[in-house]
Amino acid sequence: MAFWNRRKPDGDDQTDENHADRIRERTTTDRLRVLPHLLMMLFVGALFVGAVGVLGGKTMFEKTLTALAQPCGILWLALIMLTYFCLLLRQTWPALIGMLCFFLLTIGGNSFAANWLVLQRETPFLDVDPMKLDPYDTVFVLGGGTGTRNNGTAQLTRSGDRVATAARLFHAGKIKNIICTGTQSFRSTEKDLHPREEAAIILEDLQVPVENIGQIKGVNTFEEMQNIRKWLEGNPNPGRVGILTSAWHLKRAMRLAESAGVIADPIPANFLTTPFSPSPNLLIPSAANLEVTTAMVNEYLAGLVNR
Fold this sequence. Notes:
Blueprint (H helix, E strand, L loop, with lengths): L9 H60 L1 H18 L3 H18 L1 H12 L13 E6 L4 E3 L5 E3 L4 H11 L3 E7 L13 H11 L7 E4 L4 H14 L6 E6 H14 L4 E5 L17 H18 L3
Parallel strand pairs: 1-4, 1-6, 4-5, 6-7
Antiparallel strand pairs: 2-3
Helix pairs in contact: 1-2, 2-3, 4-8, 4-9, 7-8
């Protein structure tokens, strides 16, 4: 008789039933063990939020609840619970992985760590006021800080102070010519403009004459510097030259400029360093802080590969 048609002995059925009963009993016991811990965690969480409300007032209380309701806040709470219950049930490796993910999210997403990382990049330029610099003949505005709407029009984005600062300097008589850089590695449609095109359009809208605006290609900072060097070689009398970009990106830009043989002065814009202020995001991670931390990590990684 084939093994799949064999009938189990009567004693085996009884054994299976006993085993199933034990599993049900253990499941019920585990639930009873977990429930008090879950209630305890909810109580501690309520105490934490309540203390924030008492010490920080209504506004801080509402900001804390909002931070916890965001995707990063929910994931942060989930990692706390996952790690705690894995430790409770003696699941060592899941607990260690959960703890590692929790610390990475907490450190990378809190405002203190993000601000500290930015400060390391921006410190050399904190006291520089672009409006007080001596005039420049040519300034290269590195790509970034602009975007294209679905209708094909250009707009400023988070790092848009680069372009705005260039326009301000031009109207203050600090710049004669502005060269915009940047090329997209992928364009979804023909309406999707390159960064250099977006910046040039916005500068025109800000009343910078088109004859004072130029464009240079480059899919990243390394290529931009190589193309700037070629442009300078083709224009042997560029006058006083400056490179304008976000302050946190400027150390990398000047390092690559030196490697490419480009002699220019740094012009900072778009500072991300902010004065200390109480915030739920000193503890609870946020997507905005993760974005800043990611950008800073990218700057350090680029240094490792000379890009």
